[in-house]
Write a structure and sequence with these properties.
Layout lengths: L7 H15 L9 H16 L6 H19 L3 H21 L4 E5 L6 H8 L4 E6 L1 H11 L10 E4 L7 H6 L10 E5 L8 H12 L6 E7 L14 H9 L13 H7 L2 E7 L1 H8 L13 E8 L2
Parallel strand pairs: 1-2, 1-4, 2-3, 4-5
Antiparallel strand pairs: 5-7, 6-7
Helix pairs in contact: 1-2, 1-3, 1-4, 4-11
Bound molecules: S-adenosylmethionine.
Length: about 300
């Protein structure tokens, strides 16, 4: 991504969650906490201070988000909602049992760490993001009107700094505590070597640590698109310097993980999440596929 600009895709994801939460039929699929926190971060980022006034700005934002989805990847916003719900359920389970720390890498405008640092006091929760994106998010939080907990923010460009070096700069991080690392919607922007370095570093953390991440499926060599992405999507991503650079065939995932000392604990495709999570009226809603979610633990 561009060094001086916050992530366009992080904004796209956040606006998409807001769009689903406000949708007449699909809104029911967004749980209350995710919906209210996303609405608040959207208000801070897109609506407060809008020249047209917040109400018109909101309608225009929803219209634009709907058009963007239709023109880019039909069904992408519902996919983001489902992946977030699945990740949240595993994260809550982990923090409620074995893990005392959570590190969200490439957090964007996601609200999970804000909510969990309120709901899980006594746990250390850290967000790492590219400095340009994190700067914008931290500025937005100054106007945020919901409890946001006391999570820590750590700026790091992981294309030029290792995770180990970033964590070493973060005094609240305790390398002796089992930690859940969340890497949602990020690996597709990294080189394979960076993904391997990231896994190696997570594997070196305290015993019992785990990584919960999403990855793009490689449909043909070097091709990592969402199933029904329109051609314009790759041009848009390239223009924004957020082109997809890495993915994997699901069948190759266990070996890829084991080369870095991890074993696969859980895995979901969007179609599996459709069956598990969507309510009956929305069971056949448009949902894209191509990005899967996996939980892996260090196999020491
Ligand atoms: C598609 S967004 C996903 C945001 C969030 N995880 C979510 O799912 O809502 C990608 C995120 O990765 C971050 N990112 C991209 N390249 C990065 C890099 N080299 N170092 C650190 N963060 C990076 C962006 O700043 C952005 O927040």
């Amino acid at each position: 991504m561009k060094q001086d600009q916050s992530s366009h895709t992080a904004r796209f994801v956040s606006n998409g969650i807001y769009w689903v939460s406000q949708h007449e039929r699909l809104g029911i699929e967004v749980p209350e906490g995710l919906a209210s926190y996303t609405a608040e971060i959207t208000r801070c980022r897109e609506l407060s201070g809008a020249l047209l006034g917040p109400s018109l700005a909101r309608r225009l934002l929803l219209l634009k988000a709907g058009v963007m989805q239709s023109c880019a990847i039909p069904g992408i916003y519902l996919h983001h909602v489902l992946r977030k719900r699945y990740i949240e359920s595993l994260a809550r389970e982990a923090l409620g049992t074995t893990m005392t720390q959570m590190v969200v890498i490439g957090a964007g405008f996601d609200t999970l760490s804000l909510r969990l640092s309120v709901d899980c006091p006594g746990h250390t929760i850290i967000e790492i993001d590219h400095p340009a994106t994190q700067k914008v998010k931290r500025a937005l939080l100054e106007d945020f009107q919901l409890p946001a907990g006391s999570g820590q923010f750590l700026p790091a460009d992981l294309a030029s700094e290792t995770l180990a070096s970033a964590l070493a700069r973060c005094t609240p991080y305790d390398p002796d505590q089992p930690t859940l690392f969340i890497v949602e919607g990020l690996t597709m922007y990294l080189e394979e070597s960076t993904v391997r370095d990231l896994l190696a570093c997570i594997g070196d953390q305290a015993r019992g640590s785990a990584v919960l991440f999403t990855y793009m499926e490689e449909s043909s060599p070097g091709c990592y698109d969402f199933q029904n992405a329109r051609r314009v999507t790759s041009w848009w991503l390239a223009l924004r310097h957020e082109r997809f650079t890495w993915g994997l065939k699901p069948a190759d995932l266990p070996d890829f993980l084991s080369e870095s000392g991890f074993s696969l604990q859980a895995h979901r495709t969007p179609e599996e999440l459709r069956l598990e999570l969507l309510t009956e009226p929305n069971r056949h809603a448009k949902l894209t596929s191509g990005e899967n979610t996996a939980l892996a633990s260090a196999s020491t």
